[in-house]
Amino acid sequence: MAFEEAPFVALVHHRDEVPVVKVAGDLDLMSAPRFRDVLGKAVRGAEGDFPGVVVVDLGGVGFMDSCGINALVGATRDFASDGGKVRLVVKSSPVARTLSVTGLDKVFDVYPDVGSASCRGVA
């Protein structure tokens, strides 16, 4: 019996005019380049907004390795340093644990759902 990996999906939609990058599947060496590309486009689209907010919904991610972490940080570094807010939605304990172990739960604002993360002006 062969092991079949769930397909990776990263797409952008808007909630209350805030771009939301919805991610599902494993965020690893194979999927990180696609994730970085989609997230980068969402960030570039939000750069002119004030306050600039991008939500990354990791609720569908079951696993995230260092390649996924690098893609997340790399695609959002300049946006965040210019005052943009990157808000993460995290539901799964493996992803929450990865963020905690790496200290990224202190770097990014973490929310339980897209609704609370997409409210402008709320930190």
Kindly describe this structure.
The protein has 123 residues and is an alpha/beta fold. The protein has a single domain (9-101), classed as STAS domain (Transcription Regulator spoIIAA, 2-Layer Sandwich). It is 40% helix and 30% strand. The chain has helices spanning 32-46, 66-81, 93-102, 104-107, 114-117, and strands at 9-15, 18-27, 53-64, 85-89, 109-111. Helix 1 packs parallel to helix 2 (66-81). The protein is globular, with a radius of gyration of 14 Å.
Across the major sheet, the strand order is 1-2-3-4-5
Count of the domains: 1
Number of helices: 5
Q: Helices and strands: which structural class?
A: alpha/beta
Strand content: 25-35%
CATH class: Alpha Beta
Give the beta-strand count.
Answer: 5
CATH fold descriptor: Transcription Regulator spoIIAA
Helix and strand layout, with pairings?
Blueprint: E1 9-15, E2 18-27, H1 32-46, E3 53-64, H2 66-81, E4 85-89, H3 93-102, H4 104-107, E5 109-111, H5 114-117
Parallel strand pairs: 2-3, 3-4, 4-5
Antiparallel strand pairs: 1-2
Short précis:
The chain is an alpha/beta fold.
Keywords for this entry:
single chain; 123 residues; alpha/beta; Transcription Regulator spoIIAA; 5-stranded mixed sheet; 5 helices; globular
